[in-house]
Design a protein that fits this description.
Elements (H helix, E strand, L loop, with lengths): L1 E2 L8 E6 L2 E6 L11 H16 L5 E6 L3 E3 L4 H4 L5 H19 L5 E5 L2 E3 L1 H7 L3 E4 L4 E3 L13 H9 L1 H10 L2 E3 H7 L4 E2 L3 H10 L6 H15 L3 H16 L2 H11 L10
Parallel strand pairs: 3-4, 4-6, 5-7, 6-8, 7-9, 8-11
Antiparallel strand pairs: 1-2, 2-3, 9-10
């Protein structure tokens, strides 16, 4: 696995293993991976680097030590006393998470230990999630007199439904890996969340990269649309896929009973 040079980041490490990028949050002095402004900035930079790298076709996001991320930086938040400052704080975090959600290739969060508040919101911005046996997931913001601000009130209901989302948001309770799986909050539970997340991400690597990006776009845009409009979106994106060399190669390879060699164009 090769470490990609991203100007000696202090809070985030980026490695490349074939077509798989692995982004690891963590520092020696913070084993909870608090989403400070510095960490979020570096995470945003790492995401830009992976998106610009034509070799990357999937990404796994994980945390070092005993947490994925225990949430936002309360020291920063405690210094905010006005609506404008709070709004800007939320928008800054949302901007990084939106960049993660918009990546044109599959993303998988490996959740072992704490994934709370902003940490869970970060995981929700990934396409898929794998939980380890020590995973503890929740949105405890109401216990602080706050609400989720990095997308939790929007992404969680879309993922698990309004009633289940309100159960977690209004009680502030956390769930273990098994309950998270039952709720549909995670896709897999595994003894080694990181290895399982890598395996899941690698399942997407043999497929057409353009098709993967268009499939993500179809699902995400469709969720914000009516069924009839969503079907139009799907038809438009299907048409775009049909014009690619990858599609011609994929169909030709199937008919010739050989493995397709996708080029990403």
């Amino acid at each position: 696995m090769d470490v990609i040079d991203v100007n000696d980041l202090q809070h985030v490490q980026l490695e490349l293993d074939g077509g798989l990028a692995v982004v690891t949050m963590g520092t020696h002095d913070d084993d909870l991976n608090i989403l400070s402004s510095s960490l979020l900035f570096e995470l945003g930079l790492a995401l830009e680097v992976t998106e610009a790298n034509a070799k990357v076709h999937a990404l796994v996001l994980t945390g070092s030590a005993k947490a994925f991320s225990a949430g936002g930086d309360l020291q920063d938040m405690a210094n905010i006393h006005d609506v404008y400052g709070g709004r800007e704080f939320a928008l800054a975090g949302q901007d990084v998470l939106n960049s993660l959600a918009a990546l044109p290739f599959p993303t998988v969060a490996a959740l072992d230990g704490l994934a709370l508040g902003g940490g869970l919101e970060l995981a929700l911005a990934c396409d898929l999630r794998v939980a380890g046996p020590k995973a503890n997931l929740g949105l405890p913001e109401v216990g602080l007199g706050l609400i989720p601000g990095f997308g939790g009130t929007q992404r969680l209901p879309k993922l698990i439904g309004q009633s289940r989302a309100l159960d977690l948001i209004l009680t502030g309770r956390s769930v273990d890996a098994n309950e998270a799986l039952q709720l549909g909050l995670v896709n897999r539970v595994a003894e080694d969340a990181l290895d399982a997340a890598k395996d899941l991400a690698r399942l997407t690597l043999p497929h057409g990269p353009i098709a993967l990006g268009l499939a993500k776009e179809a699902v995400n845009r469709g969720l914000a649309s009516t069924l009839s409009h969503g079907l139009e979106i799907e038809a438009d994106l299907f048409g775009m896929a049909m014009t690619t060399q990858d599609a011609q190669e994929g169909m030709k390879a199937f008919l010739e009973k050989r493995k397709a060699e996708f080029k990403g164009h």
